[in-house]
Amino acid sequence: KQWYQRRVAITAGIGISTAAQIDSWYKDLVKPSWNPPNWLFGPVWTTLYFLQAVSAFLIWKTISFKKVLPWLLFFGQLALNFSWPPLFFIAHELLWASVESVFQALFILITLVTFLDINKLSGLLLVPYLAWVTFATFLSFSIWKLNPEMEGLWIVFNEN
Asked: Rounded distance, CA 49 to CA 58, Å?
């Protein structure tokens, strides 16, 4: 229960810290025609976080904390999930957020496959999450490509 409450608090903190950016910086970015409306992201992420929580609960009911790898993978993908919004919305690092999203999708895939071996339903509950993050990865890369003049807070590559 405490784990879930901490997760909700962290998620809310990230959401609050990025909300101001959506109405200012993000609205001015060039986006692809297939970019979803802003109102869709909240319900989608709420649903996906619920599915992740149920998936983790099923794993816990099946193996408790007797196996380390499934939990390392789960919390690893969760850490990547929490690191994307600050990279994109606060640091304005469109490229690095996109690269991070690729790693997140890979971690989700590995977590999903690992969970399938332990509890089939638990793994299947992560399929929508993987699908959305894969879509979001393509969206993130597309936004980066459509906004070549956008420089983030940390400029690593300089073409000059």
From this structure: 14
**Using one digit for the tens of pLDDT, what is the confidence trace for 83-103?**
999 899 888 899 999 999 999
3-class secondary structure, 74: helix
**Using an 8 Å Cβ cutoff, are 55 and 120 in contact?**
no
pTM of the model: 0.82
Q: Are 29 and 147 in contact (CB under 8 A)?
A: yes
- Nearest to residue 105, comparing CAs of 140, 89, 129, 82? 129
- Helix orientation angle between 2-23 and 38-63, rounded to the nearest 10 degrees: 160
51-79 b/e with 16+ CB inside 10 Å = b?
bbeebbebbbeeeeeeeeebbebbebbbe
Residue 88 to residues 34, 69, 70, 101, 152: CA-CA distances in angstroms? 19, 29, 28, 10, 9
